Amino acid sequence: QVQLVESGGGLVQAGGSLTLSCVASRLPWTRYAMAWFRQAPGKEREFVAAVTRGHGATPIADSVKGRFTISRDNAKNQMILQMNSLKPEDTAVYYCAASGTIITSQLRSQSAYSSWGQGTQVTVSS
After folding, report:
1. pLDDT number for residue 56
2. C-alpha dihedral over 118, 27, 112, 47, to 10 degrees?
3. Quick one: CA dihedral 109, 110, 113, 119, positive or negative?
4. Beta-bridge partner residues of 39
5. Do residues 72 and 79 lie in contact, with contact meaning Cβ atoms separated by under 8 Å?
6. What b/e string do you get for 95-104 counting C-beta neighbours within 10 Å, with b at 16 or more?
7. Cα separation of 119 and 71, whole Å?
8. Distance between alpha carbon 53 and the CA centroid of its chain, in Å?
């Protein structure tokens, strides 16, 4: 069974930075597309960023464009979300997701991902 473990969340002041990590096990990492989603209190889960198997495409949500960067290290089975210039509206639980069958047009769709982590809380204070 695929296992995804997120880490790096925490409490930070507005304008600060955090680095989220997702480490995967029990899956052929290089064959999987990966993504970050987030869910704020009282809101639906939304797409943040994704990275394809070969790092060929990295779509990112407009709300975080220019502030967040997604990357993957295939040698470590690890995906990173670098979050800079954080805002209070970035407060949410951040989830790592993986899919071995997704196509590029589906990268922003949470229903296309078959495996999910437990989430890590990010809180940005004003």
Report:
1. 76
2. 50
3. positive
4. 93
5. yes
6. bbbbbeebee
7. 18
8. 14
Between the alpha carbon of residue 106 and those of residues 21, 52, 95, 114, the distances in Å are 22, 11, 17, 12
Q: How many CB atoms lie within 10 A of CB 15?
A: 11
pLDDT digits (tens, 9 = 90+) for 28-55: 888 899 999 999 999 999 999 999 987 7
**Whole-number Å distance between alpha carbons of 80 and 84:** 13
Cβ–Cβ < 8 Å for 26, 2: yes
Q: Name the residue among 8, 74, 1 with its Cα closest to residue 36.
A: 8
**C-alpha to C-alpha distance for 66 and 27, rounded to whole angstroms:** 31
